[in-house]
Amino acid sequence: MKANLPEMNFFDGFYIWFNKEKKEEYYATPLYLYKANTKIEYDNRLVTVYLEDKKKKTVIEEQGLKFPGNMYFPYYEKFGMFLVRFLNANFENYQTAYDTFFYAYGFEILKELDENYTFELKNKYKDEDEYLREMEKIFLALQYKIQQVQEEMIKCVTYIYNLDNREELSEYTPSQRFAVYLIKRLGSLFTYNKNDNVIKDNYSNKNLEFSIFSELQLLDRFKNNDILISMMDTHESKDLSAICYAVLEELVKTPNSPIKKCQNCGMYFIPTSRLDEIYCDYSKQNGKICREQGAILAYNERLKQNKALAEYRRLYQLKSMAVGRNKDNKQMKKDFEKWKKEAKDRVNQLKHGALTEDEVYEWLIKNK
Ligand SMILES: [Zn+2]
Predict the structure, then answer these.
(1) Helix pair 330-351, 290-325: axis angle to 10 deg
(2) Helix, strand, or coil (residue 77)
(3) Per-residue pLDDT band at 33 (split at 50, 70, 90)
């Protein structure tokens, strides 16, 4: 069956495509979730979706378009966000799953996760509360499967981007590891692309996008080379795992888009500026992002290191002075030599990262 882009204004299913030059990801889905707020950029034909701030009182605001009416008003995010959000999502219960994932992507992507699952079409629900209550039943029925997919995605991303820093994998590229992971069927990822409908892009799909130009205007623009039409294949699916697969494959094929694990909070992220970035830039409850917190931690670590070294030097001086004052005390001299050797050894281990600051400091205090 050859799939086509929907021509009607509203449609079911989930559609995702990418612009790798702009590092952007676009998706379209009915997204019945009225609790998510949208901001529409009419000039760029793009929609951003937010989770409504629960602390703020809901402001009733009529924006005309509740969700993207068609493919030319898609939601957009940073390239790779679907997968990264999925890896970070908390599927412990319906509320956390909604707040960390489904508010942005809707429930369409669960349709094919279970054959018994019957998804009612739009306009069947009285209001948003009824809709969300119904979705909760579906979520609970599929929760275990969703968590399984998440586990597998974490496993394969860990392998493909070598997030465990495994020595034997370090010399290979993500695309090499991706290929081997699939060929050798290392996890269940190889079963995930079965429900992906790839829609090849073509000029017929550009009708709405270029509707503002007349036939002659368009011909002139082509002649003068001042129009660029990029062709982007679209993935259509109602299966969460197939979309994860599609995004992962695009990421792997794109140089300089690694998935990383934040060294402060452990969340997955794709660095925006520096490729060697080790901290994410998700804002945390204290309003700070990990990159800022990380800098503070590193500073504290240096301070602590100074604390142990300072204690070592202070004790060394005290002890050597005491030995000097008690030249006849052979035992004292012997003890000092022993202490000196052991303390020096620990300081060296600290400098090489084999011992922590606290461990060395505590040893110094105990062995005064
Ligand atoms: Zn972080």
Answers:
(1) 160
(2) strand
(3) low
- Average pLDDT value for the chain: 82
Assess contact for 133 and 158: CB atoms under 8 A.
Answer: no
Token representation of residue 166: 């495994």
Closest to 16 measured CA to CA, from 239, 227, 181: 239
User: What's the Rg (C-alpha) of the chain?
Assistant: 29
CA 266 to ligand 1 centroid distance, Å: 6
Cβ-contact 250, 233 below 8 angstroms: no
Q: How far is the CA of 82 from the centre of ligand 1 (A)?
A: 17
| 357 alpha carbon – ligand 1 mean position (Å) | 23
Residue 253 CA to ligand 1 centre (angstroms): 25
Instruction: Kindly report, residue by residue over 44-90, the tens digit of the pLDDT.
Output: 778 888 776 655 444 444 444 444 455 667 888 999 999 999 999 99
pTM above 0.85, yes or no: no
Q: How far is the CA of 283 from the centre of ligand 1 (A)?
A: 8
What are the tens digits of pLDDT across the range 166-201? 999 999 999 999 999 999 999 999 999 888 999 888
CB 209 within 8 A of CB 232: no
Task: Please give the Cα distance from 59 to 227 (Å, whole number).
Answer: 40
Show me where the domains of the chain are located. Answer: 14-282, 293-366
CA distance 114 to 12: 17
Ligand 1 centre distance from Cα of residue 104 (Å): 20
